[in-house]
Design goal:
The structure holds two protein chains of two kinds. Chain A contains eight helices and eleven strands. By secondary structure, chain A is α/β, with parallel strands linked by helices. Chain A has a six-stranded mixed beta sheet. In chain B, strands 1-5-6-12-11-10-7-9-8 form a nine-stranded mixed beta sheet, with helices on both faces. A three-stranded antiparallel beta sheet of chain B has the order 2-4-3. A three-stranded antiparallel beta sheet of chain B has the order 15-16-17, with no helix packed on it. Chain B is built from twelve helices and 17 strands. Classes of the chains: A alpha/beta, B alpha+beta.
Amino acid sequence: MLRIALPKGRLGEKAYHVLAEAGYPCPELLEDNRKLIFENTDAGIQYFLVKPSDVSVYVEHGAADAGIVGKDILLEYEPDIYELFDLRMGKCRMCVAGPGRFRDRHTRALRVATKFPHIAGRYFDAQSREIEIIHLNGSIELAPLVGLSDVIVDIVETGTTLRENGLSVLEEIVPISARFIANKASFKFKGAEIRRILDGLKACLPE
Amino acid sequence: MTDLTSGMRTDEMLSARLRALYVNYGYRIYKVNRFEAYDLYVQNKNFLTDERILTFTDLNGRLKALKPDITLSVVRNTRDETLPVRVCYSESAYRVPRGEDGFHEIMQTGIEYIGTCDTAVLAEIILLAEKSLQTISERYALDISHMGLVSELLRSCRIPEEDYQEVLDMLRRKDRHGIRAYAQTKGLEEMEQELLDRMIVVSGPIVSALECLSQCRITDAGKKIISELKDIAEIVEQVWQGTLNLDFSVLSDMRYYNGLTLSGFIEGIPVPVLSGGQYDPLLTRLGRDGQGIGFAVYLNQIDRCMPERADAEPLVIHTGKDPKTAFIEAEKKRVYGPVVLMPLGEGEAQHSAPAFQTNGQMQTVQNQELKQAEKGDTVC
C-alpha cells in the first residue's frame, strides 16, 4: 500500500484527478465529507489530505511515501526528499511586489513582509541587500499598504490581488509549480510502486 | 546465566552487537572524550551536518564543545598512532538534527580506518556496512556512490566548478526536470545532457549501473574509478549475497570527501541509519598523511522498526506475616526469573498472587510455594 499526501484545496483536487487517470482512483475523496484518509485497496493506494505546507513534512518523516507539493514549500523548507516530477500544474511565480511608486533607495534595511522568510532571506542575501523580515501568515498584500513593510515576497498567480490593492510585481524570484515528491527510504523499499505512479503521471502529463 | 541483553535498551543491545562485529574484523574499541576544543569544529564546520554547536567555557577559560561529530575527534586524537588505525566506537554526539529546533543527543556506533584504502580495505568497509545493517534488520538497503567519480562525471559534462553545488543539490533530490532545465540553459551538448540524466536515473545494482554509465563519454580518470568500483563490487559479491546499489543521490561535501560514500536504510525508518565515506581531504586539512574512511550507524530511531520487547512478568511473593521466610524463598526462586516481594495488605488472602509463565508453564504461588496454576487463578 503506497501512502500519498495530497494538499487540501484546488491543487490537491487537480492532482487527484491526474492520479485517478493514472490508475489510482479513490472516488470517496471527492465526496463532501470531513475524512482525512481515503483508501483504495484494489489500487494499492492510500491518500492523506493535509495542509499544503505540511505535505513535505509527512513525506520527509515517512508518514507518507510520496506526495504532491508546491515548489514554494520545497524552496522554503528544503526537506530531504526526492523531487521526482514537475506536474506543471498550479503554476505561479514567487515575486517581490510593492507599491508601483516604490523605489529602493538603500538608505536603510529593506522591510520585507512574507510567508516565506527563507526564500526572501536567500534572495536578498544573494544581492547583499540588508533586509528586515516581517513574518506574516496571511493577507501579505496589506503590509505595505499600512506601512508595516516596504515590499512583500509572495506567490503571484494572476496578479489580480496585487492590482486591486495598488501593488505590482517589482522582481520575479522563481517560477513555481506542483512537484511529485517521495521519501528517500520509501524509494528504496517501495521503488517499483513509486516508479509505476511516476510513469502513470508522465503518461497523463506528457511534456 | 543471566542474559545480559535483558537489561539493555534496544539501541544498547544493537550497539554491543555492532562493536562485537567490528572487533572481529580487527577494529579496536576506542573511547572519545565527551568534550573537545571548540576550534576543531570551527575550523572544519563544513564537515558537520549542522554548524550549531553546544559550547561552554572550562575552568581554565578555554572554550570547549560537546562533540557534534565523532570522526573529527578520532582523526585528531589518533594522529600519533602507527598506520593503519582501525577503531570502532559507540558514542553520543550532540547536534541539531535536520528539521529540528533543538539539540539532541544522538547515539552512534561506527568505525574509522586510517591508512591505505586499497581494494581489499574498501571491500571490507562495504561488507561491514552490509553486515551492520543486517544486524539491525534483514530488510535493509545499502546505496553507495563515489565523490571522485561524481567529480569526473561532472567534468565530463563540462560543468563549471562554481555550479557544482547547484548540480549536486539536484542530484541529491533526483530533480530530473531541474537538471534538464540547467543543461539547456548552459547549452550542454546532447551527450553531456544524457550523462547528467543518467546520473539522476541510475539507481540499482552497482555493476549494471556502472555499465550504464560506461556507455557515456567520460574522462579517463572517471573510467578508472568505474573499473575500480566494479572490482570492489565483484569481490564483495563473492562473499556476500546482499544487493549493493549505486545511487548518485548519496553525496557528501566534496571539500572533505573524495571517494566512496555510503548510505544505509532499514525498512520502517524514514531516514538513513548508516552513513559514511572516504575523507582523505579531511586528513590533509588536519595535517595528516594517508587515506581515511569510516561510517556510523545511528541508533536513535531504531525502535521504529523493532517489535516491542515484552517485559518478563515477575513472580509476586507476598511477605505476609513472615517477611524473613518470604525473603529467603524469593531469593531461591529467582532462578526461574524476576521475583518481587509485596507486603500483604490487611484482609488480603495469601493465595491472591497472580500466575506467571515459567518454562512455558503457568505457575502460581500459594503459601510461598510454587505450584502449577489452576483454572481461576489470577493471571498477570
